[in-house]
Specification:
The chain is of the alpha/beta class. The protein is built from five helices and 15 strands. It has a single domain, classed as Hexapeptide repeat proteins (UDP N-Acetylglucosamine Acyltransferase, domain 1, 3 Solenoid), CATH 2.160.10.
């Protein structure tokens, strides 16, 4: 647990420029409080103290506004920024050096037992308010834009935005956890709907230009035999 705390603290200092001291992070960061509470409740869950684990996780939820099921699996270097309203379901799996923002839901879409929550690969970034639903896989280094709703698998090194989530751009692999875009997007991210409309407008302009060129061409008299007579 204490080794995990060291990794969690390093993640905060790497990814939040507002963090100043270890004491400030320990006292004022709800993501750290929720994560350490999860470590303890997860230990209780694995040792078959299920009711106590759930009770403790709900206590942490009341104090931090972050709900993490004790059975979820979370790697090292996990960072929850701001945190209020985050929900992580029972069968969710989160890789190393993942960053999520407030209002994120890793939820299920089925009442069946078994795997029903998402799996996030290493170094994934999930923007504020995003919903990742169902037993899908988000590939390593993927970025989920704010308020996106993702219900299908996302390949590695992709950026997803919109409702439902659409892959709008790929990006190069980043191995270092500090190289990321805040909230999973940046000012140059294209809008998939606007891009589709732009493509249609370009096609209409090309067709209009072609029609004008055809209108300028001289009319040609059709050649062939004259009806009722011989060809000249």
């Amino acid at each position: 647990m204490f080794r995990s705390l060291k990794d969690d603290l390093q993640a905060v200092f790497h990814r939040d420029p507002a963090a100043r001291t270890v004491l400030e992070v320990l006292l004022c960061y709800p993501g750290i409080h929720a994560l350490q509470g999860y470590r303890l409740s997860h230990w209780l869950w694995n040792h078959r103290c299920r009711l106590l684990a759930r009770f403790f996780s709900q206590l942490i939820r009341f104090l931090s506004g972050i709900e993490i099921h004790p059975a979820a699996r979370i790697g090292k270097g996990f960072f929850i920024d701001h945190g209020m309203g985050v929900v992580i379901g029972e069968t969710a799996e989160i890789g190393n050096n993942v960053t999520i923002y407030h209002g994120v839901t890793l939820g299920g879409t089925s009442w069946n037992k078994g795997k029903r929550h998402p799996t996030l690969g290493d170094r994934v970034i999930v923007g504020a308010g995003a919903k990742i639903l169902g037993p899908i896989t988000i590939g390593a280094n993927a970025r989920i834009g704010s308020n996106a709703v993702v219900v299908r698998d996302v390949p590695p090194n992709s950026t997803v935005v919109g409702i439902p989530g659409r892959i709008v751009v790929g990006h190069e692999l980043h191995d270092h956890p500090v190289l990321f875009s805040s909230y999973g997007q940046n000012g140059e991210m294209p809008d998939p709907v606007a891009r589709a409309v732009t493509c249609l407008l370009d096609q209409v302009r090309q067709m209009d230009q072609r029609i004008k060129e055809l209108e300028k061409m001289p009319e040609q008299t059709p050649s062939g035999p004259v009806e009722g007579g011989e060809a000249p």
